[in-house]
TrEMBL record:
It catalyses: L-glutamine + H2O = L-glutamate + NH4(+). It comes from Rothia aeria F0474. It is an enzyme of class 3 (hydrolase). One of its GO terms (biological process) is glutamate biosynthetic process. This is Glutaminase.
Length: 425
């Protein structure tokens, strides 16, 4: 049976196809000549499954969508302190090419506007790295996010660098504040090459899925950047990724995202998926008109908004029952689904409120597919307290859902594969 997801994507694309509003990025001659009717969308799951519809194999340039990924490389290469000393994390509320610098320090407000992105480009790789080696690191790093080698569109690069006067002005301003410490023209050349990398909408979806997968590329298994870096990048994307439309985006769509004047938009739903769209006509903010509409639809249909409160608190408990009689009675509390903080709290409340007829308790997580880190700590803590209170605790866990074997051993919690094994322990 064919998955319904591609059919869904076809339907959603059809719903926006007639929208001809917006303009091409005509300030870059090479981009002004693209086919304005191109339209595509792709969804990549964190396990590597990829779906797409429309012009998913159409090649275009990544443009500003490169910014969060290069920011991630800079954080990984230089560390948080050195990057944050040069680039802030505050929303600017201004267009992407404004000279948004702090009054006294000259530090760009965030890495998603051009001033910040030019600075983060200069921070990739080791200190004193040559511009050529830095560019190699950028291409290799973004290729690692995509899971395949990416190349630079030299025609687009030449077109952009010829009209890069504003970016050069920004770079010279940064140099005057010692935010940049090298030749501003060389940094702008590298930044422009970075924006000229060729991608497809499928590449972008997979790059977003790598962020959603906490830095691990779903297909290659490579940990491209550390998890702590991903948290920082997604946070900045959420507040700054859509420029001076970030507030509307946060309320209407509600996922970390980044747009580019090539017509692409990416979004990352942590722990779940990456999504990307491609449509070249742009609105006044520099965001794809049809791309924004598609993301609004995706968010509504799939419940992707990060402020959607999941129902795990109600559904975490599948069953609470007893097996055996007399002194051998075992109270079995069966969990299900994904357990987050709210779900773990619900489980703890169930354990606390249950009236026990014996001293044996089994926590069954065989129907649980994921437990967040904080929820793991909470479940381990309630098991520890039960053992202190004199209960014998069993964990029914076939798939290492709670992998802290050492903690379980110290608490003398027996890990079994089924409730039936309790009588054999």
């Amino acid at each position: 049976m064919r998955s319904p997801i591609p059919s869904y994507l076809d339907d959603v694309l059809a719903s926006v196809a007639s929208d001809k509003t917006g303009e091409l990025a005509n300030y870059i001659p090479e981009l002004a000549g693209v086919n304005p009717d191109r339209l595509g969308a792709s969804i990549a799951m964190v396990d590597g499954e990829l779906y797409g519809a429309g012009d998913v194999n159409e090649v275009f340039t990544i443009q500003s969508i490169s910014k969060p990924f290069v920011y991630a490389l800079a954080l990984a290469d230089r560390g948080f302190d050195k990057v944050l000393a040069k680039v802030g994390v505050e929303p600017s509320g201004e267009p992407f090419n404004e000279i948004s610098l702090e009054d006294e320090s000259g530090r760009p407000l965030n890495p998603m506007i051009n001033a910040g992105a030019i600075t983060t480009h200069s921070l990739v790789g080791a200190e004193n790295i040559s511009p050529e080696k830095r560019m190699e690191r950028v291409v290799e790093g973004l290729s690692a996010f995509a899971g395949r080698p990416l190349q630079i569109d030299e025609a687009v690069y030449s077109s952009e660098i010829e009209h890069a006067h504003r970016n050069l002005a920004i770079a010279h301003m940064l140099r005057s504040h010692d935010i940049l410490t090298e030749n501003p023209a060389k940094v702008v050349e590298g930044y422009t090459r970075q924006c000229s990398l060729e991608v497809t909408v499928k590449d972008l979806a997979m790059m977003a899925a790598t962020l959603a997968n906490y830095g691990e590329q779903p297909l290659t298994g490579e940990q491209v950047v550390p998890k702590t870096v991903v948290r920082q990048v997604l946070s900045v994307m959420f507040t700054c990724g859509m420029y001076n439309a970030a507030g509307d985006w946060a309320t209407q769509v509600g996922i970390p995202a980044k747009s580019g004047v090539g017509g692409g938009i990416i979004g990352a739903v942590p722990g779940q998926l990456g999504v990307a769209t491609f449509s070249p006509r742009l609105d006044i903010h520099g965001n794809s008109v049809r791309g924004v509409s598609l993301f609004e639809r995706f968010s509504s249909d799939m419940g992707m908004h990060v402020m959607n409160i999941p129902t795990v608190a109600r559904s975490a408990i599948r069953a609470n029952y007893r097996v055996g009689v007399g002194a051998e009675t075992v109270q079995v509390i069966q969990l299900q689904g994904r357990i987050r903080f709210a779900g773990a709290e619900r489980v703890i409340r169930e354990i606390v409120d249950t009236e026990y007829t014996g001293t044996k308790i089994a926590l069954d997580v065989t129907r649980v597919y994921s437990v967040d880190e904080v929820a793991q700590h909470m479940l381990l803590e309630i098991m520890r307290r039960l053992t202190i209170d004199g209960y014998t605790v069993y964990l029914i866990d076939q798939d290492d859902t709670l992998p802290d074997v050492e903690a379980l051993r110290k608490m003398q919690v027996a890990v079994l594969e089924s409730v039936d094994e309790i009588g054999l322990v």
